[in-house]
Amino acid sequence: MKRRTIMLGAAPAVLAARSARGQDGFPTRTVRILVPVAPGGITDALARLVATGLQQRLGQTVVVENRPGGNGIVASEAVVRSEPDGHTMVLVIAAHAINPSLTPNLPIRPLEDLAPVTQVAGIPLVLVTSAALPPRTLAEFVAYARAAPEPLLYASSGAGSGAHIAGEMFARAIGAPMQNVIYRGTAQSLPDLFSGRVAMILDTVQTMLPHIREGRLRGLAICADQRWPAASDIPTTDEAGLPGFRAGSWAGLLAPTRTPRVVLDRVQRETADVLRQPETQQRFLDYGVVPVGSTPQAFDAFIRTEAERYRRVIREAGIRAD
Predict the structure, then answer these.
(1) Do 242 and 174 meet the contact criterion of CB atoms below 8 Å apart?
(2) 147 is in which domain, residue-wise?
(3) Which InterPro entries does the entry mention (predicted)?
């Protein structure tokens, strides 16, 4: 009788453990999320938020490992070489869809060797100009760029970076040549932006908003479907007169391609639940990003659309990696 009582008392704990693992038995050990950037910054912060939420739901430790290098390829290759069981994933950014067209002879095939799990976030960009220049609206800036005797300069953090490609997309959308100027980071570009030597940058809302509020830069348009809550006075590109123009980055989880579908679906569901929580959504808003939580199928379609869009611009503009 005593033995029976002990077993009955243990049953809820056993059931809870099985529930956390899921019917597929996943996970059975520590889950790793590799991040292609150094600690700090938005991408790293997003990974740690998701890892904390997944750990609570999966019943296993979830750790974030920073693997910067190779425009994201170092982290992605490590995941491709890992066991395809869902215990090792990578949080990629837009460079994942850029690399196949930008860099020949990669050690992996990013779009074939990694399976989409879920898009974690969309990261809209804001189109910013110097307050030292005449244009006060996007329409005025477009007219200013078209009338300029020499191509206006715009800032980016590197050849083939998201900001570089977004700048090329913008120049093509308005029918005016513009020249990319490469800096080691946004902070280094600010003096030239403040002075008006560099006319434009496309960067995250979180990064640009303090300088817009100080009056040193002007936010001309949010390159997204909706205005940003913390910058509701800045119109969207549709509202500002450039309909259909979108520019942004994104982040999402990928796993090795042979990872069982049941595991991919489980991680997607749990991640989507993390992203639905009010506290998570507020943190994302603070970071200037939009929570997504799409299905593996939807994320796969999104990545391929993005890759084709980048491929076309890279080819037509003759963009080469540093």
Answers:
(1) yes
(2) 124-240
(3) BUG, Bug_dom1
With CA atoms as reference, report the closest residue to 258 among 84, 89, 76, 86. 84
Q: How far apart are CA 210 and CA 190, in angstroms?
A: 12
Number of CB atoms found within 10 A of residue 103's CB: 16
Q: Please name the residues in contact with 225: beta carbons below 8 A apart, sequence gap of 6 or more.
A: 236, 238, 246
Q: For residues 118 and 300, give the distance between their C-alpha atoms in angstroms, rounded to a whole number.
A: 9
Q: Are residues 75 and 104 in the same domain?
A: yes
Q: Are residues 147 and 172 in the same domain?
A: yes
Q: Residue 309 corresponds to which tokens in the numbers above?
A: 């869009």
Query: What are the residues whose beta carbons fall under 8 Å from the beta carbon of 275, sequence distance 6 or more?
Result: 50, 120, 281, 284, 291, 292, 293
Count CB-CB contacts under 10 A for residue 304: 13
How many structural domains is the chain composed of? 2
Q: What DSSP string runs through 177-220? A: -EEEEE-SSHHHHHHHHHHTSS-EEEEEHHHHHHHHHHTSEEEE
Residue of 17, 36, 26 lying closest to 83 (CA atoms): 26
Phi, then psi, of 88 in degrees rounded to 5: -130, 120
CB 115 within 8 A of CB 264: yes
- CA dist 192 and 200 (Å) reads 10
Q: Is the pLDDT of residue 125 over 60?
A: yes
Over residues 245-285, the pLDDT tens digits come to 999 999 999 999 999 999 999 999 999 999 999 999 999 99
